[in-house]
Specification:
Rossmann fold, seven-stranded mixed beta sheet, binds S-adenosylmethionine
């Protein structure tokens, strides 16, 4: 599919905006030394969410908390992703915030990795984090870009990943449009790695919490959790599901069910002993809010 088309599964009139037409760059390395900060247009109904992230990027600056306060889980996600990324891969981090995971992976693997985010403040700080990152094995680039209209040619990347960016796209329509963009820029046989929260995983954790007399947790105003069966049905013609990794199950049971059951209104320390140990333990069961879906682009 060309980058100029609206995905066929999504009715054109359902997308409440016009996208800016643009010529995709040939390759991530084509942007090296000349990182584009050009903003691409966004559907108007997503502007409040972008505003939220732009503000958050300014507030937290270089800190990992710009994307998420749970640094322990951020780090674990990066380690799990690294298992599917090899030296010499070209990689896209779709919705990279200020580059925490992008740079974590760039330190671990000899890759060419590009992080994109639609919040300029995030990219500004990602570039500062890059300048202070120390030894990077390959090369890392950051640019302002919209996941719904990626500024890259078809079949560019070996690996694309998204961590909690799809849930920030407001509706299943935009989530599906982004999935098709990831598909477009991936090489045939390339992997799309999706670490996201689903309606079903949230309900499952909440059922456990409620059994323990704890309140259900609700999504933040800017989050739209993925509907797992609907998304799996949607991706079927495009991707083969290689693996679903329950990499956060024990972690959530211990930190979001057992701990609050014993310590009501306890102070949460995401970098503290409980969180760090819970992330290191074998992850048993299917209670994690997040899972990693490893999807392989079908060769047509
Ligand atoms: C929850 S944060 C996760 C950041 C990062 N993936 C991580 O795991 O640390 C979501 C990020 O996605 C970005 N984002 C949301 N919608 C986007 C879009 N349409 N295009 C590009 N970035 C987007 C936000 O600006 C924010 O930085």
């Amino acid at each position: 599919m060309s980058s100029e088309e609206v995905p066929t599964h999504v009715e054109k009139n359902e997308i409440n905006a016009s996208f800016v037409r643009h010529t995709p760059s040939r390759h991530p390395s084509a942007d090296s030394g000349n990182v584009s900060n050009r903003l691409t247009d966004l559907p108007r109904d997503l502007e409040p969410i972008r505003h939220h992230w732009e503000q958050r990027g300014r507030k937290y600056g270089l800190s990992p908390s710009a994307s998420w306060v749970d640094e322990t889980m951020l780090q674990r996600e990066g380690l799990v992703l690294a298992r599917y990324i090899n030296d010499d891969d070209t990689v896209l981090d779709a919705g990279c915030a200020n580059g925490y995971t992008t740079l974590q992976l760039a330190r671990m693997r000899q890759i060419r990795i590009t992080g994109i985010d639609y919040a300029p403040s995030m990219i500004e700080h990602a570039n500062v984090n890059l300048s202070r990152a120390g030894h990077i094995k390959g090369a890392a680039f950051f640019k302002v870009n919209n996941f719904l209209k990626l500024d890259f040619a078809d079949n560019t990347f070996d690996k694309v990943y998204t961590k909690r960016t799809l849930i920030n796209l407001g509706s299943p329509i935009y989530q599906k449009a982004a999935i098709l963009e990831a598909h477009r820029v991936l090489k045939p046989g390339g992997l799309f790695m999706v670490s996201e929260v689903t309606v079903q995983s949230s309900e499952k954790l909440n059922r456990l919490r409620q059994k323990l007399g704890l309140e259900a947790m609700s999504p933040l105003w800017h989050n739209c959790y993925l509907d797992e069966p609907e998304i799996l049905r949607f991706i079927e013609p495009y991707f083969e599901v290689k693996r679903i990794k329950h990499f956060s199950s024990t972690y959530y049971v211990l930190t979001w069910a057992i701990y609050p059951f014993f310590v009501r209104n306890g102070q949460r320390n995401y970098r503290g002993f409980l969180h760090r140990v819970s992330a290191l333990l074998p992850q048993i069961g299917d209670y994690g809010l997040q899972k990693l879906y490893v999807l392989k682009k079908r060769s047509r």
